[in-house]
Amino acid sequence: MSAQDRLVSSEQHSSERKALSVSEALDIVKGALKGIRLTIVGEVSEVSAKRGYKAVYFTVKDRSSSLSCLMWNDIYRASGVDLQIGQEVEITGFFSLYAARGTMNFDVRRLSLAGEGRLRMEVARLAKKLKSEGLMDPARKRKLPRFPKAVGLVTSPSGDAVHDVLRTLRRRWPQARVVLAGVQVEGANAPRELVRGLSCAAAAGVDLVILGRGGGAYENMMPFNDEGLARAIAACPVPVVTGIGHEPDNFIADMVADVRASTPTLAAAVAVPDRAELLKLLSARAASLSAAMRRVVDGAQASVRRLSDRPVLKDAHQLFAQDAMAVDHLASRLERVLPANIDKQRNLANQLSARLLRVLEGATSQPRSALARQSDRLALCLSSGVPRFQQQVGLRAARLHDLSPLATLGRGYAIARDASGAIVKRVAQVSVGQPLAVTVSDGVVSCRVESANEIRTDTVPL
Question: What is the pTM of this model?
């Protein structure tokens, strides 16, 4: 019999059985509740996940009731959900009874976010994936052109956003050409339409693209969390500005875009400069430039006046007067010094000439007998030294003749050389058939080795 049957039986025959103890009654109820498995949707109103606890305790509620829940830590971690107050969750499990206190809890065995919460969790997972690929890297994002000539607008052609953007662009930067790509911004086909609108606007030669829509429910904004749209924004050849009016939410399109604005109107204001402010800035810069030029011209005029008052510019002779007087003074000194210096040098030359004549006369007056004696001494030395040197040269020449190879050849000897010109001194240096060149006293004989026999030196006849 099941616990539920036992509970019914106990109600029908309560008069026939004895009363149950508290533990027995709670065991019956606990067994009956454990067989009922339910799936419940509710809003999280309390969460207690303290360190050291074996389970996570939380409360879900609706408009009129609340339910205490527990979830064991291993099951909670496996669910991948981080419980927060205000989340709408879907839980599956069964009721359990804590017998020690007689309190009832819902033992959760499966947990997931429901409705918008589930969507937000999916968006968070996709955002994490795209971030790991670098699509949200600030270094990848481009600067907006300062003075765009053409602006692309991708939004619904029938919503309020298109009128807000066009009105802002016309007021702030009327000279910009606007290329409108009217697309769906809501529904199953919206992501594909948004991607096509981006491509068309970029192909039209715009300098940047504004992508946006007005506010709405979070579920209706999901096309701006589409992965395909995020990759199209990252691949767009021109900068993209998003203006999705759903504060404080931040969509994946916002994260990937080069610039993010909270509304379409603010996106238009960010995309183009303010013509009125630019004109004020140009007017202020022109006034500043004019004042600076006036100061430069006034300073130049003052400098010209100061220079024109200088005496040298009023009388040109004063510019060269000092130099002209210096030239005249030096010329006068030169006229006085040159004649005296010439006379001095002439006298010195005369004195040197007289001295040279005296020296020459003294040299020629010496007796010629001294020269004759020196000449005789030189002849004697030559006559006594030459025979001795001639004798030594003769001895050296005879010695060289004795050592000369030619003399050896003249006595009947010959010199054998191999093809490389090396002298053959031993039998081991030649082989049969090898050509040799034999030098004799009056020429060279070419021959070939017929045989080679080594001769012992102790048996060579004398």
Answer: 0.47
